[in-house]
Design goal:
alpha+beta, Ribosomal Protein L24e, Chain: T, two-stranded antiparallel sheet, 2 helices, 4 strands, elongated, structural constituent of ribosome, Ribosomal_bL28, Ribosomal_bL28/bL31-like_sf, ribosomal protein, Ribosomal_bL28_bact-type
Length: about 100
């Protein structure tokens, strides 16, 4: 789905607008999803994710891996398939 949060899995919800006379009209509620670049320290690279603003607050507080784990997600959901199973190369340490 296009408008779905990667961390929480929240998506568009449908329901009714109910007037004072209890007349019901169908409507949808869209999740406030933004595209955000997040740095994965373990893999030493940037990843673009679609994340809800509520999940972004959790992410800033706990970190990406903990936030995804708390919501029952998997980190491989945001990792492109060509990177799954590949360990990042160690960065050379400058000594002077």
């Amino acid at each position: 789905m296009a408008r779905t949060c990667v961390v929480t899995g929240k998506g568009t919800t449908a329901g009714n607008n109910v007037s004072h006379s209890h007349k019901k009209n169908r409507r949808i509620w869209k999740v406030n999803v933004i595209t955000k670049k997040i740095f994965l320290e373990d893999e030493n690279r940037w990843v673009r994710v679609k994340i809800s603003t509520r999940a972004l607050r959790t992410l800033r507080k706990k970190g990406l891996k903990v936030a995804i784990k708390d919501h029952g997600g998997d980190i491989t959901a945001i990792t492109p398939k060509k990177y799954v199973g590949i360990t990042p190369k160690a960065q050379p340490v400058a000594t002077a």
